[in-house]
Amino acid sequence: MSKVEFKSIKDFLFQKDKTFIIPNYQRGYKWAVKKNNKQSAVEKLIKDLINANKQQEYFLQGITVSEEDNNIILIDGQQRTTTLYLLLWALQYEKFKEINLQYDIREKSKEFINKLKNDKFDYASFDMENNIQDVFYFKEAIKQIKTEIEKIEDRTEFHDFLLDKVTVIYIVIDKDKATKTFTMINGSKATMLQEELVKAEMLRRISIPDIENKQVSSSVEDNLNDLKEIITKDWETNALRSRYAREWDKWLYWWNRNDVKEYFNIKSPMGLLLDYFYKRKKDDKDAKFSFDNFKGLITENEKTGKQKTKLIFKELRDLQKSFEDIFNSPKIYNYLKLALICSADGKDKFEIINYFINNKKNEELLANYSKWRMVGATHSQITSGNLSENEETKEDKAQIALDNLSDDFVYQNAYDTALKQLLRLNVEEDNKLFDGKGRKFDFTIYGNKSLEHIHPKSKVYHKNEEEKLVDGNNNLLNEEKTKYETDENWLNREDFNGNGTEHCIGNLVLLDKNENSKFNDKSFEEKKVIYFNVNEVFKSRNLLHTISVFAKSKWGIEDIQKNKEEFIKRFKTDYKITD
Q1: Which of 47, 339, 422, 492 is the 20 to 30 A CA-CA neighbour of 103?
Q2: Are 470 and 478 in contact (CB under 8 A)?
Q3: H-state helical runs in 266-301
Q4: So what's the pLDDT on residue 479?
Q5: Pairing of the two strands 508-510 and 462-463
Q6: What's the DSSP call for residue 476?
């Protein structure tokens, strides 16, 4: 550590001819992030500054830097410095344009920051697709800042306070200690994630010079040619490093989309990309991704390490594209999600996704895989032809599912099996749409409350062994309750002739898990009115197989029996089961 001093914000930000550099090992700008609807770090800082005593000094903690020529490399203090930059821009401070702030290798971030100095720049139209994480949070920060500064009564007083009274501890350290210091400083509060360390290491290796040592020649022309080669190589290296950084940030943004996180059920910032890449490279589903393990994939020799890094980056790009291809193809998207739903403990998640990646161009194969997963078949039962003599086959699983689905009391005895098969039928209807290209199914409807009795079980009365009236849940009923029942045939289950009850698969339908309660114990006619009321939002109306049921004109014992027969026939056909 070479020096420590107090600096006002004016002295800190307006250092003549100096440029603030956000180095490549720094994480993206995140102070505008809101967690659990709580205020962001940006909002907290601005509110604290607005509410501070304007006559007293206000300390903003330390900012650690290293200085190199006219560059100030921000080791710790990136978020605060960027936020202050955006604040001064929002306040339209006259000398704002004198501040030079650059995001190293993040070209779009650098471009956005610099364009703010252009009075005609429409920041909201920059990266409208929100592909760049930094830019997205820059814009979010601006919105939050603008909302807060509207509350300032005296802008002049606030300007003076911000620039002269707000102070930072300015800590300068040696350049060669920068990375180590960053890790030490952030160790307790914001340790670099494994994914970020991998990114930093790969960008470092890409930056390694690959120009061989050259002897100074007596020929001016030779020396000039050597210089041109060095400049060209250096330019190519910087361009490559910038491109890699941009690609990485795009991947990061993609994996942090809510629909992607929900679909793959992930929490890691880079999703499954690095973890699955490492497992695939090691050909081991139990291989554990970490920075140290990943680093081992790159040879220790710095020179060959650069070439190996290029190869690994290409392989990462190919894997990322595979994930995106699967996610963007409606039918494969649907088939994979069905298969993942059947991975109860998640232990075979890698095998499932790996199978889809390896066979992403074979739609028929993936449809077949998904179908067998829906009856409980394991990955090895579907893909292996070397099962032991006593081991269950996928056909055995289908037969067990058929026996369960044929039961008169599926709702009580085989709920999960019925739920998955009704889900499969609805998904298959979506896959037929748009000339067979399919539509992405809304899997948010799926849950443990997604099965509904078409004919309400509370309207079905039976006589128990004591000749007393009970409802579909075997609750004793008062005699007067029978007046709500219009079909006397429901009184005796024998009227079903051994072909189902109100709890059989023929009387069950898939609904959105959050809309089941809207039906309660309403009659079929009342449910039908609710279902087709286009004046109200009803997600279950998107369930095409369910629609086919509610399109019926009536629903009684015969309809339940017929629906059960058709369901069982369809199941046997799909799984090629013969009597």
Answers
A1: 47
A2: no
A3: 273-282, 291-295
A4: 58
A5: unpaired
A6: B
Give this prediction's pTM. Answer: 0.66
Domain ranges of the chain: 3-192, 202-328, 388-574
Q: What is the largest CA-CA distance in the chain?
A: 115
Q: How far apart are CA 203 and CA 517, in angstroms?
A: 54
* Bridge partners, 3 (sequence order): 172
CA angle 260-266-269, nearest 5°?
85
Q: What is the pLDDT of residue 340?
A: 95
CA distance 319 to 315: 6
Angle at 32 between CA 29 and CA 37, to 5 degrees: 140
Q: What is the pLDDT, as a whole number, of residue 438?
A: 96
Q: Is 55 left (phi over 0), alpha (psi -120 to 50) or beta?
A: alpha
CA 494 – CA 473 distance, rounded (Å): 17
Sign for the pseudo-dihedral over CA of 317, 282, 300, 293: positive
CB 251 within 8 A of CB 320: yes
- The rounded average pLDDT for each run of 10 residues, N- to C-terminus, in the chain (579 residues) is 76 92 80 85 92 83 84 88 94 90 83 92 89 89 94 89 88 68 51 71 70 48 51 62 83 91 89 93 89 76 68 94 97 97 83 95 96 94 80 93 92 94 96 95 88 84 71 67 49 58 90 86 87 89 92 88 94 92
Contact assessment for residue 106 and residue 134, using Cβ atoms and an 8 Å cutoff: yes
